[in-house]
Structures are given as C-alpha cells and as structure tokens.
Amino acid sequence: MVKKINLFVFATHHSTNNIASQRFKGLLKYLDFQKYRVFIFARDGGPDLGAAMMAAGSDITVMNLRGRCVGNESSVSSSIVSLLSAFVAEVPFLTAATDRLIGRHSDIWLVNALTAADALCRERLADGEACIAVGTYSPIDALIAARSLAAKHRIPCLQDFRDGLTFETLGRQGKLSALLRQWVETRVVASSQLVTTVSRALVSDFERRYPGKQVRLMPNGYDPADFSMQDDASHAAAAQLMAQHVPAGKRVIGHFGRIGTSDHSRISTLECFVRSMNASHQARQHAHALFIGELAPVERTIISQLSCTYSTVDAVPRPVALDVMKHCNQLLLITGDGVGCATGKLFEYLAAGPDVICFSGVTNEASHILSETGAGITILIADEVTAAGTLDRIFSTSPGISAIRRIGAYSKVEQVRQFDRWLSGMVA
C-alpha cells in the first residue's frame, strides 16, 4: 500500500459559506489523492456535532467541532487557554486531559480540534506516513492549533495568512490587542517551515520581519468548477432576480457581498464611487447599480444618494450570486487604504467574466492583479476629478472591446500544482 502524506488542516470557516472558507476548500479538492489524505478541522456548522464527513470522490475528512474561538464570543478563561497555547504547546493537551478526568466537555474549539487531530496524527505516524500541520488564519486559534500539533509530534507546519495578523490588522484595536497579535504571530511563524499569504505586500512584510523564513505567495484564486457546474435552479433564480430588480435597457454594475465590515476605510471609497457616478452623465443615464449582500445602515444611506437607478438585495445563495455576476456588464470592487487587499471576491469577479471597476483609497494588490490580467481598471479616490470621464466611457452606448484576460494563474487547478511542490518539499 502506498504511504500517503497526511494534511491536518485547521480551518474553522470550512463548513460555512464565508468567503474565507473558499480559499482552501477549493484548493484541497484538486490534490492528488493517491498521494494525499486530508483531515479538516472546522467549527460546528450543523446538528451533527463532531461528525466526520467524507467528501465525495476524494480522501478528505471534514470534522465539524464544537467550541468557541478567541474573540468577543469567548469567555476570558477560554481565551487565556487558547492564547497561552501559542507559547506553551502542551496547554491544550493538558486541558483536554483535565476535562476527561472530570467528565467535562470542553467549550474551547482549539482543545476539541487538537483532541481529534492528536489521535489521528498518532495513528498515521504509527503507520509510517508523513504528516503536515496546516493553520489557516483567521481566527488565530487555527494557527495556534497547527503549531501545537506540529510541536507535539515534531511534524512540519505550514501557516497560512489570508489577512495580516499584524500587517493591516483586522479585529479589535488597542495597544494590548496589537501586542498580543504580535506575540502570537511571532510564535506561530517561528515554528513553521513555510508561511503562505495572499499578497505581495504581505510576503514582503513577513520576509522583512522574519529574515530567513520561507514565505510564499498564494493568492485567494477561483475555483473553475464554481462557474461550470451551476444548476438550472440557480440560473432561473438569477434570471428572475435580474428581471425583478434591473430596469430594461440599463447597463448593470454589480457589487456582491459586504463592503466596510472589516475595513472602515472602504466607506470613504464608497462615497467616492457615488459622487463619481453622479458626476458622470453616461452613468446617470444608462447605469443601474445592483448591490447584493448584507449592507450596513451607513452604506445604505450612501447608496441612496446615487442619481442613477439602483437596487439593493439581501444575500442570496452563492451559486445564484455567481450566476448574477455573469449577467452584469461591470463588476464593482470597493477597497480601502490597505495595500495588501486581495479579497476573495476579486477572484470570483475574474472568473465571472465582466470587466471589473475597482474604486480604492490606494494602489493595492487588487489593482496590480487587475492590471496584469487585463480584467479591469482601478479608480483612486485621489483621482476623483477624472473619474467621471472614465465612467462616461464605460457606460456609453457603444462600449469598447474588453481586453484579453490572463487569469489562468489564479485558477485553483493551476495553484494546486505549486501547492503540491511546497508540501512535497516539506516532507522530503
């Protein structure tokens, strides 16, 4: 029997529709399963607490485990256990042993995930197979879990950062929170063999602060299957939505998902978008702005100031949203002041087909990707004076021919080849 490489992937969002879940979910399914076996430790997303599920046609086991992660939802005591585990890898295993001794079920996701991973890892190592621990941020609990498993069993560790833990940070502000993030990041990066992240700016930041550490770029990317396997029901729902919310004859610019929830600087960018649209004669006459997804009250107020027709629609199932994207003439990306921004939404836009208009506070990773792929343009807040002219050309009755797109490098099918080379090198 061929010995496999076992991946122990700590990905709390895996069993949700959160955009964060799509990054590894789409990548892992394209691995060579004659070579790899994958265990994913996610958070409980349904009634089958702790149940293991096999993904059809692949050697992937997903475990939805109960418990809370560090943040507003967790108690002070459980957060202390999780944070302390970043510095003393044995803490979650000792906590699990104590819970078993007194007959208590832990309410800490980190402890429950490591309890399951520990048993499986020991079993795989006993069979002479290679194992790799993979942590995917956010939350920080997943990074800590990967470090703890790797330290206990002396196996390689890959830490993946979808967002910056200390670079353009998300989450709670303040000096203490910033210091804790720095301490945790230092510990989880130091114990890893490889760090992967989504943007060139983040790669440079890690290389500068951790000299000698191997850091690699792995953008969010898109899964081609998401766009080739949509069903008739999704097509029908998308067509109905467009007919219900878009006036006949309008050119549609569509925005999907949230705007400023994780980055408040995007509010200023949204305001710039509205002012620019209102200043464009062609946009006022021919454009319809379609916003699909959860919007904050302040965002709805800003959007209501549009002079062109517009509509807002609550969140819809992801397959329907992807289909609606293909019905749009342009897709709108709103980014803020973060130079490392390369949201997963961008890559869905690339695969959907329509040209992308990115309004941004700064030239960022998304801007570079749109430029190198030929998939769209970026309008900066600082260039607002020329934005109306740009929008006039875009929304004219005789739009120009779109540029040839070069998006293949961002396909999960292509990305998994590089991912396989990195993983193979870690156990060589």
Quaternary organisation: single chain
- What is the assigned CATH homologous superfamily of the largest domain? Glycogen Phosphorylase B
CATH topology of the largest domain: Rossmann fold
pLDDT averaged over residues: 87
The largest pleated sheet is described as: 8 strands, mixed
Report the span from N to C terminus. 19 Å
- CATH architecture designation of the largest domain: 3-Layer(aba) Sandwich
Output the structural class. alpha/beta
* Number of structural units classed as domains: 2
With helices defined by DSSP (H or I, 4 residues minimum), what is the helix count? 17
The CATH class of the largest domain is Alpha Beta
Q: Rg to the nearest angstrom?
A: 23 Å
- Number of beta-strand segments: 14
Helix content: 40-55%
The rough form would be described as elongated
Structure description:
The protein has 428 residues and is of the alpha/beta class. The protein has two domains: 5-221 and 411-427, Glycogen Phosphorylase B (Rossmann fold, 3-Layer(aba) Sandwich); 225-410, Glycogen Phosphorylase B (Rossmann fold), CATH 3.40.50. 44% of the residues lie in helices and 18% in strands. It is built from 17 helices and 14 strands. It has helices at 22-28, 76-85, 91-102, 109-126, 140-153, 175-190, 200-209, 225-228, 232-245, 266-279, 281-286, 297-303, 318-327, 344-352, 365-373, 384-394, 412-427; strands spanning 5-10, 36-43, 52-54, 60-65, 130-137, 157-161, 194-197, 215-217, 251-256, 287-292, 309-313, 330-334, 355-360, 376-380. The strands form two sheets. It has an eight-stranded mixed β-sheet, sandwiched between helices. Strands 11-10-9-12-13-14 form a six-stranded parallel β-sheet. It is elongated, with a radius of gyration of 23 Å.
